[in-house]
Amino acid sequence: MVARLFLVATIMAAPAAAPAQAPADLEGQRIGEIRFLGADGGEEDVRSIVELAPGDRLSLAEVRRAVKLLFHLGVFGQVRAWAEPGPAGAILTFELLGLRRVRSVEFFGNSVFSDAELRRWIRLSPGEEFDRLRLSEAAAEIEKRYARRGYRRAQVIAREEGGASEDVRVKLFVQEGPPTRVSRVVLRGDARFPQRTLLEVMEYTPGQVLDEGWLSAALERLRRFYHRQDYLEARVSSPGVDSGLPAMWEVVTVDVQAGERVRVEFRGNRILSSRELRRALPLERELRLDEATLAEFEEILRDVALRQGFARVRVTARLEADPAGGTRCLRFEIEEGPRVRVEDIQFAGARAVSSAELRAIVEDALAEDLPQPLLAQAVDPGDLDIFGGAQPRRGRPRWPDRPDGFWFDRTPERMYLPAAYRKGLERVVDLYRSRGFLSARAGPPELAWSRDGSRLMVRIPVEEGTQTLIGALGFEGNDSIAAADLLRLAETDAESVRPGGPFDPNALENLRRRLLQNYADRGFAYARIESRVQFSPDRDLADVTLAVDEGPRVEVRRILLSGNRRTARSVFDRSLELRRGGRFTPKKVAASTENLLSLGVFSGAEIRLLDPDRAQEQKDVLVFVRERPANNLTLIPGISSAEGVRLEIGYTHLNLFGRALELATRLRVNRPVFYPLMPPGLEERYQNMSFVEGLEGFALAGLHWPRAWWLGANAGVRLDLAAVQEHAASFDLTRFSLTPGLDLHLGGGVDLTLQLDLERIGFDCSVANQSCGAAAGDRWNRYDEGSLFLVGFRPEIVWDRRDNPFRPRRGALLSFRPEIDKSLSSSREAFFARLDLLASVYFPLARDLTLAVSLRGGAIVQLLSGSKTPSHKLFFLGGRNSVRGYREDALIPADLDPPCIEIPGAANQTECISPGGNAYVNAKIELRFPLVPGRLEAAVFSDGGNLWIDPKRMDPFEIRPAGGFGLRWVTPVGPVAFDFGFNLDPDPARHEDTWNLHFNIGEF
User: Fold this and answer.
1) Does domain 102-160+170-175 have CATH number 3.10.20.310?
2) Are 924 and 853 a contacting pair, CB within 8 Å?
């Protein structure tokens, strides 16, 4: 809470009409009446919080506690209490001042900074509690930001609008004023370079605004410039800018002490390149070449050599003066020695743990410390675990990064890195202690070199010490849970704690926490458990006692709501797993929180005990929520090679009637404009259309209930009304539909959708100047022009284990969409089943290298003789989402013969338009890798697929191949993909292109 909390419960004297009494005179008197001011009709709920009642003795401590509880409800900004004498005893009054929230934050007069930037810097946002102190701090922070940018005269006037009990409209008026500009830059000291050169490095423009951010970046650029010129000890600084001085012009002074040039040399390195060694040194930072810095440089170079296998390397750094004067030389003498191979690691003294197990621990530490790119490495099952479960490495050979110009084929297990060995030996000691060897020690390593120094035997002394076993395991104070049940819980866990087993302090602590969780799950929210250990004199036995203080078993007395300004209480009653009179457990709290957040109307939810410091059998539970803004308006522009220019407007009301009912409306309009990328025939049609005639669109209005409580905790229902206008190569479509649907979350990433579609479809087709009912239309098995009423049942089951739906790097996605459709008109028979299957898998081959594989297929089966598939239900291939290299929806079915039709009135001219198919297969494989990490990615891909009009002729091996490459510009809503696809086997008879460009937002 940001509001000021008044915990002062003052026992005040009576007004002037009555004789004044000191507070001590009222303390202990009986309460005659309790009043509540500002309860606004909720006096009954508020009164139930205060445990004091008329007739009780007046206690200052109890009044303070009541004030605290009332404030913690989160409903009131201030709570005050006072007492005064009355005819029947003391009159106790609680004054409740309503909580005011920020309704909106608006900025006026700002041009240097955008509204979004200003919002990030202030601590005021709609929906939060309003506080005048924060408002003044926001104005001061904006003025400070302006001063740093160079606008020292900027002033911010903050205003609040709204009544004492109303939400506040915050308005911030910015008077930027004229900026302070740089009159000139003065370079003082030993600069060694012409001033003009240095000013260019600083990117200085005469008369520019004196921005402190520019000055800091300019000094850093200047420092790096000097370091690149070998002035390693150069000092660059500025006395600082007084942002409080309202000057119009100011001289910027920069102090430069270039010092002497320092030449860096490497001697003795035969295999390690000087470039690699210099790149490892932090020469860009501000340096002082003293003994400590030289020692640091020696350690850095020694580590570089160690990681390349030079285990006996010696590095000596010297700073020497050049006899010619004016420069110095930083010389590194390097004795590489031979590359060293660790032949064996022996553990002397290890009896309780095998040497192989200990050796694996050290080898894992070495593998962690050496960079291991997986590309071109031997595949290990742990590397390609796409489902997230931890598979251990199986010891496949690995190569570390190789030095420039040398092929070094050593595995990490055969390298000697002292730091990695130390880390591995710490883990060895941890392993021993987990098995009861509490005084175990390992190391330091003893090294035995071969005569030529290229082979190494590592001997690690191990002192196991005495193994401590658990002698007895007992429980105290466990009145509600039998000791046998607690003992069973201790023995069934992987880190079992049982008599006769090894004593592991970590396992004992984990057991204590599990027992606490077990008690909490049974309603003992205040349970405490203390572990006591008694060792035998020789420390080979340890008696463990777990002392339990169960505390009361907490029962929910009442459920109090806070923050629900629009949401009805019935929504909470149906979403909360906690019930009045039921047990208060963490599982119910977690489930209730998840249910509330799944409604989509709350940005946050917190469930806690009211007055948690007092242990009681009956406790009030406070449910505090933060409601999202009810009205949301979105405007989303877009562009793609198929849809052209797109604009989408959406309006959503998240909490209709306060029942967590969502009203969603969306309108999308697009106009294809990239004519050369369109299928044949459609390009000419669009060029002949007016702008309005060529528009395509989609409109939707729907009611969504994310959590249909009467169907279960993980069920949602929806009712959508949609309209579609679409122009395709072989038909024009106008579609109206009414769709009731049921969404079920089955757990484990599995979602099931059941929906019923009632459609009215209007076709207006013209292909090669022939109507849909002409010979060409019959041959293509399409409908005549006109309308069609269709009803369809369309379930879909999806299993989604991708790590990111926008940019997946690992995981899998499976989707199966069967549907059954039937026409409601006897004159146009249509009764068919449509099956569509998708399987996508994503393999992380290296840190930023992903292999994506996708396989799709589908078929339409007619369930009635004479039934034909409507055009908009057919499958189409080609374009950005299926087979790149073909134009959008332009791949012609394999069994269409002839594939093209003659154009009436045009001698020897044919037009090749895909009518769609009743079966298809589509396979895609794509390798994605970064060019600029986090910003720009590239991909190479291979696509393939085919269509068939007759599903019986479907041949999954008759694939039309394509391939290509592309770029992906990374954005928060998914990558913007630009793909160049090439048809690897173009068919001249079908007039197919050899390549095509595709762009779209998103990737499969």
Assistant:
1) yes
2) yes
Residue 372 is predicted with a pLDDT of 57
Beta-carbon contacts of residue 296 (< 8 Å; ≥ 6 apart): none
**Cα 256 from Cα 250, distance rounded (Å):** 19
Residue with tokens 């100047």: 769
Confirm if 331 and 318 have CB atoms less than 8 A apart.
Answer: yes
Antiparallel, parallel or unpaired: β 168-175 and 102-108: parallel
Tokens, residue 789: 């009423």
Say which CATH topology domain 9-98 has.
Ubiquitin-like (UB roll) (3.10.20)
Structure tokens, 557: 């007395």
DSSP per residue, 888-908: TT-PPPTT-SSSSEEPTTSTT
Q: Looking at domain 555-627, does it have CATH number 3.10.20.310? A: yes
Residues 86 and 75: beta-carbon distance below 8 Å: no
d(CA 166, CA 147): 34
pLDDT tens digits along 495-514: 678 888 899 999 999 999 99
Q: Supply the CATH classification number for the domain 633-1001.
A: 2.40.160.50
pLDDT of 23 reads 44
| 588/621 Cα distance (integer angstroms) | 12
Residue range 417-445, pLDDT digits in tens = 999 999 999 999 999 999 999 999 998 99
For the chain (1004 residues), the mean pLDDT of every run of 10, in chain order, is 38 35 66 83 70 87 84 78 88 84 90 91 82 90 93 93 81 94 91 92 91 92 92 89 76 91 92 91 89 94 91 93 77 92 92 92 87 52 42 47 43 86 94 93 93 91 94 91 85 77 91 92 94 93 94 92 87 92 94 91 91 89 89 87 88 92 94 77 72 88 89 88 85 90 90 95 62 40 66 96 88 96 84 97 85 96 90 91 91 87 66 88 95 89 96 91 94 86 91 90 84
Residue pair 917/862 in contact by the 8 Å Cβ criterion: no
Radius of gyration over every alpha carbon of the chain, rounded to an integer in angstroms: 38
Neighbours of 534 (CB within 10 A): 11
Amino acid making up residue 207:
G
Instruction: Please give the span between the terminal C-alpha atoms of the chain, in angstroms, as a whole number.
Output: 45
- Sign for the pseudo-dihedral over CA of 482, 487, 492, 493: positive
**Range(s) of the chain covered by CATH 3.10.20.310:** 9-98, 102-160+170-175, 181-257, 261-335, 341-370+414-467, 469-549, 555-627
Residue that is written with structure tokens 């880390």 in the block:
423
Q: Can you tell me which residue has the tokens 């005048």?
A: 132
Superfamily of structural domain 181-257: membrane protein fhac (3.10.20.310)
Q: How far apart are CA 590 and CA 578, in angstroms?
A: 10
Contacts of 323 (CB under 8 A, 6+ apart): none
| CATH tag, 341-370+414-467 | 3.10.20.310
Distance CA 912, CA 988 (A): 11
The CATH code belonging to domain 261-335 is: 3.10.20.310
pTM for this predicted structure: 0.72
Per the CB < 8 A criterion, the answer to whether 82 and 93 are in contact is yes
* Partners of 928 in the β-ladder: 850, 939
Two structure tokens written together for 142: 């904006």
